[in-house]
Amino acid sequence: QSSTTLTIAQGNDILSLDPADHANNSTEATLVNLYDYLVNKDFSGETLVFTPNLATSWTTEDQIRWIFDLRDDVKWHDGSPFTAEDVKFTIERTQGDAKLRSTARFRTIKEANVLSPYQIEIITDGRDALLLHSLVGNGAGLLPKAAFEAAASKEAFFENPIGTGPYKFREWRKADRVVLDANTDWWGGTPHWEQIVVRAIPETSTRVAEFITGGVDIAVNIPPEDIARIAADPATQVVSFDIARNIALHVRVAEGSATANPLVREAIDLAINRPELAEFVVEGFAAPTRGLFPPKIPGFNPDLTGDDSTFNPDRARELIAEAGAEGTTITLSSPSGRYVKDREIAEAVVGYLQDIGLDARLEVLDWSVFNSRLNSFELGDMYLWGMGSYTDASILLPRSILNRFNNDWHDATFDGLEAAAAAAPTEEERLAILREGQQIMTDARARIGLLYPQAIYGVNARISFDGRFDEMIPAEGARRV
Amino acid sequence: MIIRALGRFVLQAIPVLYIVSLIVFVLVFLTGDPTAMMIPDDATEADRAALIAAWGLDQPAHIQYVRYMANILQGDFGTSYRYGTSALPIVLDRLPATLLLTFGALVVALIIAIPAGIIAALRHNSAVDYTVSGTAVLFKAMPNFWVGIMLILIFGVWLRWLPVSGSGSFAHLILPAITLGTGFAADLAKLVRASMLEVLGQDYIRTAMSKGIPDRVVIFKHALKNAAIPTVTMTSLHIIALLGGALVTETVFSWPGLGQLIVQAIYTKDMAVIQIAVFVITIMTLVLNFLTDLAYRLLDPRIRL
Amino acid sequence: MLGIVMFAVIVLSAVFADLLPLADPTRRSLPARNLPPLSGTNGQFFLLGSDGQGRDMLSRIIYGARASLIVGLAAVSLSAFIGLVVGLISGLRGGWVDLVLMRIIDAVLAIPTLLFMLVVALVVGSGLMPLIVAIAVTNWVVYARMVRAEVLRVKDLDFVAAARIARVSGATLLGRHILPNILPAFIVVATLNIGAVILLESSLSFLGFGIQAPGISWGQMLAEGRQSLATSWWVATFPGVAVTMTVFSIILLGDWLRDYLDPRHPA
Amino acid sequence: MTPVLTYRNAAISLPRDEGHTTLVRGVDLNVSRNEIVALVGESGSGKTLTALSTLGLLPRGAEFTADTATLNGHDLTRMTPEGWRALRGAEVGIVFQEPLSSLNPVLTIGDQIGEVLFYKRGLARAQRRAVATDLLARMGLARPAQLLDEYPHQLSGGMRQRVMLAIAMAGEPSLLICDEPTTALDNSVQAQVLELIVETAAQTGVGVLFITHDLSVVAQVADRVAVMQHGAIVEAAPVTQLFRSPQHPYTQKLIGLAPHVPAVVRTGAPSAAPEAAKAPLLELRDITKRYDGKTLALDHVSLQLAAGETLGIVGESGSGKSSLAKIITGLQRPDSGSVLFDGRDLLNGPAGAGSDVQMVFQDPFSSLNPRMRIGAIITEPLYALSRLSRTVAANEAARLLETVGLSPDMATRFPHQLSGGQRQRVGIARALSVRPRLLICDEPVSALDVSVQAEILALLQRLKSEFSLTTIFIAHGLDSVYAVSDKVAVMSQGKVVESGPRDQVFGAPQHDYTRKLLDAILDSDPAQSRFRRNPLQHA
Ligand SMILES: Nc1ncnc2c1ncn2[C@@H]1O[C@H](COP(=O)(O)OP(=O)(O)OP(=O)(O)O)[C@@H](O)[C@H]1O
Ligand SMILES: Nc1ncnc2c1ncn2[C@@H]1O[C@H](COP(=O)(O)OP(=O)(O)OP(=O)(O)O)[C@@H](O)[C@H]1O
Ligand SMILES: [Mg+2]
Ligand SMILES: [Mg+2]
């Protein structure tokens, strides 16, 4: 492969070239090279900050009316200029097509008004501290109004899609690869690579083999057992980094369930040896935690640690005895192959619960079955879930989302937090409310946090690539060394 | 004669397609609501309800089915939930890769199985014969993905002779074709051996030998052609199985065939894609059956269509 | 004979696994994970190595035989039974019944097994029984076709005509004349099929449908071990060898059984 | 006379479980140019093995030894594979018994002749076609040129044997071996093929080794005869001498068994007048049967049969004889017409004929369930009538076995452990177990060899009176029908073309087809040969 081509191996093919219609992180990881957002997320510091992208600056006084100034030197891949009309179009199209997966992306936006070709006004539906979150990431890629409307149909447009990103669409061979070419007219300068190839290699061992033989430069999701071999080879390196995901047990609290008794739930929490899980099951590529959002997420609660002190099997046994729950059957449902070592983690948890005298059982389900059961609330007493791809801890609060995951858990204080957070006068107070929410939920053991997993990539030694917290793979982030 | 056969073919195809569509509809419907797989983690219940309504999934099953069939009759095969685009091209896109792999596997199988089967039959009950039979059982018993990964490790990683995965060139086809072809070759070799043995015991082979013509003429012209019919039957059954996609092999080699698509579609309950994929497979199956009948006719003049 | 001995060894060791001096197949020891064959730590010796959770491979292979054999035998019995009934009806009844059944078989063949699996998993739940049912739901067509073809062959033979002239009852005709004479073909198909089903179970594990994690099956071990084939070859290879040997012994057993049941064959 | 084939003390042995078994031994044979030598003997006596030894086509592992074994000067005991290939086709050609299976079904006739012309005579493609056409024409085949592009299944049995002969002669061999070339053919076709062989031999001077078990064929074609029994030649003599004064007891027995065409046929005089009509036991009215809506197997067939009578049905293959039998036994329903048995309408009546009608089948192999023991097979119809105790069944089986001339301890055997003739006896015992009133025998002896045929026919005759049976006897050979029947029906293409008392049909045939059949009967008297061109030298 020519040294000016960057080849990336993902675990699955992109679902769509339509940025508003995939709801899939790894698809977005590819599409960020093609489309731009108004703003950018920057996770390089302590916590998330927003940086300019196609919007150079923004202002709001009331968190209702927002004014964005746009770059005036941006061209679409077909050469036409990018303007505020395109932003308005993108927002309205997404809102207007109910079949799009990201149709709810801009749900808080009431209207978008073009003030001038390079200035747009966005009016939200009441105070919205999180507007910037919705303008970047999955579903927020900007589309050209003129070209889209000129195309015969949506499908026709996405046969040869147009964005403003550093790379232009060349071809998508379904289930095989997406090929992108450098956009020599890119507003950010000359792209570093002449061509980007994103390959779909679902089988992990094949992905690793392809990476080792130099067939791809960057391979995502390297299994821990292959790390030693890759690190030992001077031609390859392993890159691991924190990501926006946490693994937690979601617990059923309704009357009649084995985990209805808070003592039992507390015992479960205490029974789990999180440091051991992190070290042996995922070979150290995760941080033990009781928390629900990793540090870089606004609203992260530093009190919910997962160190050795959280592990107290003796106390757990006492609690079980107190609750009279010795030998109670508790079923843990887990998906398989969805998150790194998900089944193995669940197996280990079951082992810990057996250690404290519960009759713990494991139910491993295929992902689609798992999802169907989740939606009809038919999973076991607990299930393993790895929520991810969030940018703010506030997604914990809305009842409408919570109902999908912990429908039987209610707490008067917690239920009031959603409104309180929305009305919080300052960001500081808002974050405090979010932390409180996590504390309440973890104390109730409605969710029992386990790990913050890391992403592990294989990266060719001739390339430097650090990996991103949001798991996007912008080719500009990879450089020849 | 051909016209009548074609007529019969169509008459056979319509009820099968109808039964297939009905079974698939019921099965997919039973797997539940596809929207759960479509929405992001931070979607609300209302978002989900809106999506359900947008796709018309809130309608009762029979209404969905009637609407589905009505659309088909108008040439609209539906939209993929997963890809958000028309389902037919999604399926047709995968066809070339599937056909190519099927063809490759077939070539590998025939190249291995026919000589092996013939030699085993000619050296009946000899060491060669036992070796062929033993190897056949072995290949049949080896899981596909194991063979595939081993081939990758040996020829891709270790020897670096062939590309590890992907598609696009002849070199890419070799390993997946071998992976699929060997299992098939095992079955086929046993069959070729058995039918050759049977044919070699026939009177007309004795007649051919009594003419004093060379052995190769007896074997290839007189015997092989007669032994070909069961071979063709099995080959066509195998092709049918492969047309549905060789999921495991496709996954191991990142081969963009139908198998992966169908499995993904099933996982995501992507009704339109499953329906069309199954339709396409059914039609190809029926076409293949038809071609097999034609092949019988070519091989054996006694068989009429 | 080799077939019987091999198969007996496999079955007996699976049945009496508890009596064998084996490590607990579910005992995890994370520090002892992925140890190669003939090695050990902490006083535990792994003849066939350990898997990714530090469990003893030998013990898991022997215990895993249970699920694999049960799935293989039960799914094959169930599908053979369904196939036999359908094939007999189709072959003996003929006419439109035959036509309809054959079209249904065509249809079932075209529908991916996985779709049935998914539905069974959703409707019945997952585990051993659903797996068996799901395999049988698609696998019976193999038998139905074969039985039908054999019935068509046998039912026109003169001895069947003789029995019909003698006015023997339908049950006798079936049980004494037709079934015994389709038995050889049936045995051959069934023994090959058991192997195929054991392998199918492994493919289904590959998709996450096999035996559930606390349970052990060869298919599941194969599917788990394939990830580390490059780094710990033994984790997937030994279960593969176990499947291969079982399939091999069943095929031999089938050949032997067919000959044994055939009066023409010297005892 | 130039000797072509000379065998002195030839022996053939085959590998068996332990060591070799000698199946053929002490064979002395001489075939010269312009000579037809017949090799006769019962089934399994080693005739075919002997023939195959001249071509090097003995089964794998066979050993062939001889003091002398030469074919045109080649020593057959020391031939290389190449040597054999050169010999076959060029020096010796062979015609096998089964016209159906001896030609390759998937190759054209032209192809199958052409390859001999190419490999044996090196003819170019165009020439091959011309030569092959000429060969077929010489074999008396019409439109030979078209035939080259046709396949064996498009030809009748007789035509196929002509093609086989053409193939055998294509390499211009000096020895022609005919291994029972006409056994599988209908009488009339047999005569034509024999004529052709004799003619070909006379024209080309090829030496012929003619294998058969039919003495009337021997009488018609052979110059000299060798008789084989149990793998050895027991007697060899010029044909007239052999027939006049057979020396060996086996030869004498064979000649005794040879069916003699009844004098009445030769003289053409009808014998006794038909008996007065009795009330029919079986009456067929206007039976018509089509298979798959196409093949018209039976075309308005009507027949009557009185109690105690034997009706012989003759007709060529495919004329509908078996179909008729199946309809009477209720195995098949006609499309129209009615079957009356003892006044009852079998097609519409409540219970059919019950156990009153039983049948004996042609094929001794497929008519017995290979997985049942003989005892169970025989008593099955009894069981169907009523439950029998174990001992009653065993007694009954023993009694029946004795009745058909088998030893009672055969009850525990399986069919494959019996010879063809024994199996046919089992089939008869099964049919008789329920004491039927009507017995249908569908070619019960066609698949058996001559001596066994005679025994089975005698058995049937005996049982007929013993059980006071009414019998339908189906055959395509006229002699056996003549031997057993009171009345005869002649069938052709689904129709009964002629029927009546035996002597009337045989003595004064009304229909052309019947006459053709009668003409084809061969005389087992060498002096009466119809084919021989050159007068018998040893007469
Ligand atoms: N391939 C073979 N393997 C073993 N035994 C054989 C084989 N061919 C023939 N025999 C045996 O050799 C003996 C002679 O057989 P052969 O075929 O020469 O008899 P035949 O006189 O031609 O009989 P028929 O009149 O039935 O054709 C028989 O006992 C037969 O069973
Ligand atoms: N089951 C069947 N299906 C279709 N055609 C049949 C069937 N049985 C017989 N026929 C056809 O019906 C015709 C009469 O057959 P039948 O068996 O009655 O003749 P046959 O006189 O007994 O002949 P053979 O002397 O060869 O036994 C033949 O053309 C035959 O091919
Ligand atoms: Mg013979
Ligand atoms: Mg007949």
Please characterize this protein's 3D structure:
The complex is a heterotetramer of chains A (481), B (305), C (267) and D (539). With 481 residues, chain A is of the alpha+beta class. Helix content of chain A is 29%, strand content 24%. The radius of gyration of chain A is 23 Å and the shape is globular. With 305 residues, chain B is mainly α. Chain B has helices spanning 2-30, 35-38, 45-54, 61-73, 87-122, 127-141, 144-158, 170-200, 203-210, 215-243, 247-253, 258-267, 271-299. Chain D has 539 residues and is of the alpha/beta class. Helices cover 36% and strands 25% of the residues of chain D. In chain D, the strands form four sheets. Chain D has a six-stranded mixed sheet with strand order 7-8-9-3-10-11, sandwiched between helices. A six-stranded mixed sheet of chain D has the order 17-18-19-14-20-21, sandwiched between helices. In chain D, strands 1, 2, 4, 5 and 6 form a five-stranded antiparallel sheet that branches. In chain D, a hairpin with a 2-residue loop joins strand 10 (224-229) and strand 11. The two termini of chain D are 18 Å apart. At the A-B interface, helix 6, helix 12 and helix 13 of A face helix 2, helix 3, helix 5, helix 7 and helix 11 of B. The structure holds adenosine-5'-triphosphate (2 copies) and magnesium ion (2 copies). One adenosine-5'-triphosphate (ATP) binds at residues 14, 23, 41, 43-49, 59, 213 of chain D.
Query: Could you report the average pLDDT of chain D, rounded to the nearest whole number?
Result: 85
What's the rounded overall pLDDT mean of chain C?
83
Tell me, what's the shape of chain C?
elongated
CATH superfamily of the domain at 3-257 in chain D: P-loop containing nucleotide triphosphate hydrolases
- Strands of the largest sheet of chain D, in order across it? 7-8-9-3-10-11
CATH architecture descriptor name of chain C: Orthogonal Bundle
Instruction: Please tally the β strands of chain C and state the result.
Output: 2
* CATH architecture descriptor text of the domain at 3-257 in chain D: 3-Layer(aba) Sandwich
Note the beta-strand portion of chain C: under 5%
Query: Helical element count of chain C?
Result: 9
* Low-pLDDT windows of residues of chain D: 266-274
InterPro entries (chain B): BPD_transp_1_N, MetI-like, MetI-like_sf
GO cellular component, one term (chain B): plasma membrane
Protein name (chain B): Oligopeptide ABC transporter (Permease)
Subcellular location (chain B): Cell membrane
